[in-house]
Amino acid sequence: MNKKGLFISPDGNNQLKIFCIISMLFLVLGFSTGMIDILNKHFQNTLEITKAKSALIQFANYISYFFVAIPAGILAQRYGYKSGIVVGLVLIMCGTSTFMLATVHGEYFFFLTGIFILAAGLTFIETIANPYVIVLGSKDGGAARLNISQSIAGLGLIFGPLIGGHFVLSATGEVSKTNDGLFIPYLGIFLAVTLILLVFFRTKVPEVTPAADERIGAIDKPFWQLPHFVFAVIAQFLYVAGQTGIFSFFINYVVEHSPAMTLSLASMLPSTWTYSTGGFYQITERGASQMLAFGGFGLFMIGRLTGGILLSKIKTHVVLSAFALINSLLMVIIIYADGYPATIALVLSFYFMSIMFPAIFSLGIAGLGGQTKKASSIIVMSIVGGAVMPMLMGAIADHYNMAVGFIMPLICFIFILCYALSWRKLYRGQNIDVAVRS
Fold first, then answer.
1. pLDDT, tens only, 319-334
2. What is the pTM for the complete model shown?
3. Which structural domains are found in the chain, ordered by start?
4. By three-state DSSP, how is residue 274 classified?
5. What is the DSSP string of 87-156?
6. Which end of the chain, N or C, is surrounded by fewer C-beta atoms within 10 Å?
């Protein structure tokens, strides 16, 4: 499929311009998510809370998806994509404002409130922008377009811990005890969203009609009676659960389980990455955050980019099967190995998580036609899995150690593997038009 064809709708219109504008929303989404993943270790230090209690950050973030996803889908169904996106942007501005005020008061509750409101806005964006990108162009290019947009989110993921870690995490063996550094990154989000909102008001956003939605395929059954959709909801719940757990405790794992380094090895790294203790060198919190940014999220973005190529050439469920299998094996290494092999496996897991969300999303809504908007809000609602997993992993880590906590993502990837392997059979069994490319 050539680039031009990817963004040309069946009526002959070139949707590249609006696609680029929508993709900027994914950049905000990625940056905000990346910022969330440095907060666990930061608040463990500044507020002196346990790993399990720090996971309330993810709970506040993802429980918002649960409550807001369906209203967002209904609003998009009734008033259109543009209205829903505008509401989302306004909520993001309110959430970041609340979070900035929390840096002054220093109360955990106010931080969690800001995160909840911010996540509500991101839920509107994710619920509406994902299906919009899928139908914004040629029929066969839906998964590829979604991967391109989410690769932009991957770029935001890199900048999140990179910028946030610079302002709030320690570059020495000592831990930070102040929340002041959080103000500037969230001010940046506020200003960026304000600019996007102004651009949106001045831009004509094409509305996809129900007839155009039916290009994806059509079926008369309610979507909740379709096994390929129902299991996609469960798979997405578990994927986001596993992903969130890995993202949230990456810094904890690297700081606690990375091996001590000699001077010769430490000298090869930036000075802010290591600190000396007992004649050896350990990774600093800021070093771990930059490893998360460049290593983990860097591979995540590369995976999204190469994943778009893979999904344009290989069936989506086949790629998902391979990636889920590899990540299951990597989780085993993280749990049972130690030192460099485990740290490398942790970083590599980001690459093989990269296509899972858009792949499961695409497989789940295949053949739903005019029901796509409502069904997509259900799948986005399943992101609430991210509220549960960090708390479980944190509790296990508090009781045992951080490595043992990774048994939870392992369970998630095994289920995703089973779903991907059985998807074709589930889809054919419903007598849906199998010409849909998934």
1. 999 999 999 999 999 9
2. 0.78
3. 7-428 (1.20.1250.20)
4. strand
5. HHHHHHHHHHHHHHHHHHH--HHHHHHHHHHHHHHHHHHHHHHHHHHHHSS-GGGHHHHHHHHHHHHHHH
6. N
